[in-house]
Fold this protein.
Amino acid sequence: MKINNVVAIVTGGASGLGEASVRAIVENGGRAMVLDRNIEAGNLLADELGSGVIFFEADVTNEASTQAAIDKCVSYFGYVNVVINCAGIAVVEKTVGKEGAHSLATFEKAININILGSFNVSRLTAVAMQKNDMFDESERGIIINTASVAAFDGQKGQAAYAASKGGIASLTLPMARDLAQMGVRVMAIAPGLFMTPMLAGLPPKTLETLSTQPLFPNRLGGPEEFADLAMFIIKAGYLNAEVIRLDGGIRLP
């Protein structure tokens, strides 16, 4: 699909990987809805990027809230044909730690936001995509979810996070099969260590150590590199039902 035909809903679009994706879409002639809980950051981004971007405050785990966002996007732009799900949280807690067993509420929160939220947005937007006229190669839409290398190389304290991102990876193929007849592709990106708000608060020494772990280049990934891959996926019509690692060759020990 040509980027200038894109009308995207980007969850978590007010910062990090989502913000970079919104900027890349607009820079390439597309339009986007920033869907986020951060009202101030979302409105600032929409104001900066102009009429090609609107902001909608919504909870991705809430059906009514998400449906209202989709309806607004379709009403404002005429259709929606891309979803990039970047909304998510990182949880660090051992299965059994000094305070006892892993909090069930924390585990549930990671699953709800990272998997349920992504699926909720994807399933509801797919209904709207089904009504689209066909774009290139009889394509009606593209869904890009965000997994993580933790889905495959989960670390200590990442039981909840790795499980949630593993769910995203496992969701990719069956969802692609479900939506193939509609002309909707489904992909996932599994980022490695990226300089996002999740990592920015770590001490400089920790960031320095982390940056040495990728094979090459020895640095943290930049959100714009995630966005570059998302733009490539949108344009590369033969890509479907796959999880792509974007990690500098890292394999976490």
Observations:
- The domain at 3-246 is CATH 3.40.50.720 (Rossmann fold).
- The chain has nine helices and nine strands.
- Residues 104-129 form the longest helix (26 residues).
